[in-house]
Amino acid sequence: MLTLAYQSLGVVYGDLSTSPLYVYKTTFSGKLGLHEDDEEIFGVLSFIFWTFTLIALFKYIFIVMSADDNGEGGTFALYSLLCRHAKLSILPNQEATDEELSSYVTEGPTDSSQSSALKLFFDKHENFRKGLLVFVLVGTSMAIGDGVLTPSISVLSAVSGIKLKITELHENYVVVISCVILVGLFSLQHHGTHRVAFMFAPIVTAWLLCICGIGIYNIFRWNPRIFRALSPAYMLKFLKTTGVEGWVSLGGVVLSITGVEAMFANLGHFSPFSIKIAFTCLVYPSLVFAYMGEAAFLSKHREDIQRSFYKAIPEAVFWPVFIVATFAAVVGSQAVISATFSMISQSCALNCFPRVKIVHTSSKIYGQIYIPEANWMLMCLCLGVTIGLRDTNMMGHAYGLAVTTVMFVTTCLMALVMTIVWKKNIITSISFLVFFGSIELLYISASISKVPEGGWIPLVLSLVFMGVMYIWNYGTRKKHQFDEENKVSVNRIVCLGPSLGMVRVPGIGVVYTNLVNGVPAVFGHFVTNLPAFHQVLVFVCIKSVHVPYVRENKRLVISRVGPKEYGMFRCIVRYGYKDLQQENYDFENRLVSGIIQFIETEEECVLKPTLPEHTFMDSNQEDNVVHSLSDFQVTKSGIEHLENTIIKDESLQILKAKESGVAYILGQSHAKSKKSSSVLKKFAIDIVYAFLSKNCRGPDVILNVRHTSLLEVGMIYYV
């Protein structure tokens, strides 16, 4: 546990621990002045201490950390919990068999009258279910905006300290150095965080010990009375004496808790207890002493407010601390970049983001991924923010709005989790929402006042990301609705066979579909224009379920379509929202192995009626699946061996069909808006969604389909 706690320092706390670089500088960047009586400094420190204690310690460490989804944290984990317990999901293709997954746990205390009423309310009002998804997407888009702002403000704040020693260094050079570091940081992402992770924890540990030691030194050297600022009375005095300017300055105070959402989002890499140990034993006291020490220094050096952090460092240790600060800023940026990759991956799984290339960067640590398109997009945006603003104060104003919005979304979702999942009294949930929500709304209101001074950046970024995510989700839902309404009957296709001159050709035909039942319209379109299909036909559906991971032995669900003589099967490939749909997945062999095992299990069902009928879930362990693949190797010697062991005729036909070849039929459905649609809808569907559909990665990549085996069938549907 202690080892995990130590390792979490490098991954979880990089962003949070670098906040002292810019908190005081941003807070006093406006018209707020410093007077001789230290009221403002004591008031700001009191706000920082109690905000850090209430939000980071009490809310996240003591409460939110307990709301994990099979060990996973973050906004999507909370949404997934709610979807499972209250049937809030708007994901298509959800089935009762999904609830048989071991991680699909909904047991707990019996529903109270209040939780039942809330579930019934969401069940009756589809618009509120859609509204909840939009609310989650707002938080996610703001969190992705964090991935743009964090590297920019952290690196630029760390590098700007060099101007204290090299006073003649022009600001342009500081910006250039920061950009070089950012380019280097993003260029190394494809190697994966695991290659440099061994140095992350020591860097953050050294950084925390440095700022803690310097903080204690400054307290006793400059102003031991600073401990008085821990009294909440100084917050009231601060607001009373400073008025509107004091309220506006709170947009800088909130930067002291940037990174607390990362503690929850990175829960899957560690355990809740290890993260709590690291925070309470090292991170919390170190940052509190750092903020107190800097406030003590400021009380005697008011003129150094815009460079107080580096000015407060004793001369003898300036350069070592500067170097550690730069490394810590890079580590903090790395944590947020990795979290952004994870959020985009989860959004793709929930049909809220176009499918992009996702690369595993570690064979040992699951969840460490790299998304090339997102990486270069983030790099360009970071460089644009750094070069365009050149000012950490303006970046801080933008940063504050993004951070507070994400935290407020988490608070609202937690209130729902308390009632629906934990079955707590609704008074408890409302008290939680009012107490923490009012604090966060106070900071949101202060940050909104900074919109003209940089706060517009996260609004624009989140609006763009939100637009992309919602349009993609809307178009995907309409496509599924079209497929559902235009399903084709298998019996009708078979009956039309003689009149169309339909023939069955050797081989296996794999038809990709969005449906978990019925025959897709694209297949009917195909056979009416080309009246021939394969001897063995498999309808494959790739879908996501509301659990983090689906075990490999539960991945495929195979069933039969129509009577046995039709030779048609259905295979549902299930993924959790944190599973990676890998390109190197040996789909063909796993599919054939699964079908053969289904046939044998189905034969046993005839003899043992108590077994489930017509549906087979691969219940062997993954190594047994590999073993079965070697047993069913499609070679002449393999077939002879199977004949000698008296394998059933249908199983042998499957293997012979596999030897003849596997062809993939993919439907390319193109959405078009109706003539009566509004201009906005035509722009969203005909331009944005069409562009995203054309440039995203198709299911052929997930199924690892060779281009020589691919046949695409085009259709147009109107929304």
Quick gist of this model?
InterPro entries: K+_transporter, K_trans_C, K_trans_N. With 719 residues, the chain is of the alpha/beta class.
Description:
InterPro entries: K+_transporter, K_trans_C, K_trans_N. Residues 4-493 form the K+ potassium transporter integral membrane domain. Belongs to the HAK/KUP transporter (TC 2.A.72.3) family. The chain crosses the membrane at residues 41-62, 132-153, 173-189, 196-220, 246-265, 277-297, 317-344, 365-387, 399-422, 429-448, 454-472. Residues 506-717 form the K+ potassium transporter C-terminal domain. The protein is an alpha/beta fold and 719 residues long. It has two domains: 1-31 and 142-405 and 445-474; 488-606 and 642-718, no CATH class. Helices cover 60% and strands 9% of the residues. It is built from 27 helices and nine strands. The chain has helices at 2-12, 14-17, 23-27, 39-63, 75-86, 113-124, 126-159, 171-187, 197-222, 233-242, 244-253, 260-265, 272-298, 308-311, 318-349, 372-389, 392-420, 426-448, 456-485, 490-500, 521-529, 587-607, 622-631, 636-644, 649-660, 679-695, 699-702; strands at 359-360, 369-370, 503-512, 532-544, 556-560, 568-575, 615-617, 662-672, 710-718. The strands form two sheets. A seven-stranded mixed beta sheet has the order 7-5-6-4-3-8-9, with helices on both faces. Strand 1 and strand 2 form a beta hairpin. The longest helix is centred in the N-terminal third of the chain and has 34 residues, at 126-159. Mean pLDDT is 81; it is low at 609-636 and 642-647.
